[in-house]
């Protein structure tokens, strides 16, 4: 890579980007909903119009990726073709069509003093998005930030440098067409990692960081950020088969939770089976998983079932992101809850139970961002929740939790109207 | 002070407190509303029963304060008498009587897939409260944290050490009576400042810090905390008299905003006057302020009015907390907005205007936690907002903003119910 200025130059560059983003955010905060919608629609048209340019840029990225020896999976994530580019354009249009969250009155009431109080949505300000190889994040994340009235600083992966560059240009073209400040979307123009370090500590300019990527990236961001972070480090999702589980639901949900797609954060990584249903439903589910090609790493009791591989302590609380699942027999629901508290990651956990009291206990005593009953953990997704596009799933408890869509990228303010009202 | 163990001992002590708080919070999170109410009611009864003990402890604190040479104002904040103790007991009962925020369904909806999705309030976890001389904060903050299902670690001022100790014991007595974990309320048992440093960096155990005190304390906490902070550094509240201001409202509101109580964060520190009403409403308001004993530090134009003292650049953006106000003439509403953006602290700002468009512009283009129209900035208070007791007023944009009551000390989780529902 030739673009390696020294860290002082990077600091000056990032400071300038931050300053511009802050200035743009002040204007974008009260932009008309129609203007933001138009910016996104024009950006979508621009993406379609520049298909050839995007593919040419992507070819440069793919060549860089090959030189770097990226895995086939990584190369696939990086790759853009006509179909994926159309998907990006459609994604921009979908966000354009969403309701504008800014200015919505969340609640309002009157006081005896004569005050009328409204709580109104307002943007957060400036959002930093740090991501890895998927260039589409440039468009998706940029669009959500814009919709929610926030300025965004995008820091893509070094592999998607050129593809992301063209996509960011499409967003800027949209902003210009809508007469909105172009600095509302900025892509960090260097691959230097020092830029990430700067971005994480720019408390004056950046209100929140959203990392999109693997555990390595998210862990780094969580450790080093001096600004709030919306993220999940891992998705260690559990499925617990209660004594009251329905056999068919248990089978259907567990198979889907593990095997539909193993590489997403909502895929199940651990199966807990109530002792009372071990020889009935449990056997059936274990069999079905193994037959589906899953490596099932079980505790001593489960090892009695043919095909079960011994689990080590390290297999619990582990995110396999693969056709592997850890499994354990528990004596009762409280043991399942204790296991999830200890090994879970507060992402998504599901109970398979017909007994309302059991489900209630699971819902009350666990505090994962998403708790499910008789439903697959793979449903943990903004789209499946009807919340529209999401910038990610957060497991923290502050501000944003679960699927983070445009609404969760906002804050609020109180608007108070009196009539010469004073305090006694 | 004799209690000065070394920093390793303090670290071990705080670690133990954090561990206990975390364990208590897991239980308190699903405590029955009746149990929490009972704990607070018993605590109130306990405060009344221990009046003599509280006064004796407070006398030790007052002696310590005198030795330390505290100002009369500080000594007054520290002092507890029968009336104030009854006020503390009533405050506990008021929080007991509030609705329990935990478990409330914030919103719920159904998806075509068959999922039923609920967004339900859940406590934040562990809250650290760091405060100065007022011992009543021990009871007030402790009660709000308990009501919202959070464990609390209280770190009172060294001056209120003994008074706070007895008040914390009253809360613990309430917890015991309600069979709730006593560790849900812990008072740091040392005056050593190292304990504060520890508390601010215990990311594993503490979810949020609430500092209650002057700019020195809040600034320290904001600089050094590695956990989120709900606070306002300063309340630099502005009153802007628009060209469309009503004379009577302008006079009434400005006088109240400045003079009702000068020492609170909602008191006005700066007056902005639209040029068009300078010689009419402006003159009258300036006169009335001066007649009320306010030192008005004005710009060159205002200095033409008798009794106006020249303002320096440092007087703008300054929190006087005294019978002093800075004042400036502005050419139009945008100049007022620009002034507030530059010098304000995002706490509370008020426009006096009959023109709806002007008020709308002020509300849209500023992003203070609280914006008011024709109302006194002194109304910026949880009680005046009908939100019940507050733990403070926050100016940040993440999570909590404006008056922070029991509701804002909560997060949420998604409870998702299916019927064997899987993802396609």
From TrEMBL, chains A, B:
InterPro entries recorded: Ald_DH/histidinol_DH (IPR016161), Ald_DH_C (IPR016163), Ald_DH_N (IPR016162), Aldehyde_DH_dom (IPR015590), G-glutamylP_reductase_CS (IPR020593), Glu-5-SA_DH (IPR012134), GPR_dom (IPR000965)
Keywords, in A-Z order: Amino-acid biosynthesis, Cytoplasm, NADP, Oxidoreductase, Proline biosynthesis
UniProt keyword Oxidoreductase, yes or no: yes
Enzyme Commission code(s) on record: 1.2.1.41
First-level EC class: oxidoreductase
Origin: domain of life: Bacteria
NCBIfam families: PRK00197.1 (NF001221), proA (TIGR00407)
Family: Belongs to the gamma-glutamyl phosphate reductase family.
The name this protein goes by in its record: Gamma-glutamyl phosphate reductase
Source species of the chain: [Roseibacterium] beibuensis
Recorded name of the encoding gene: proA
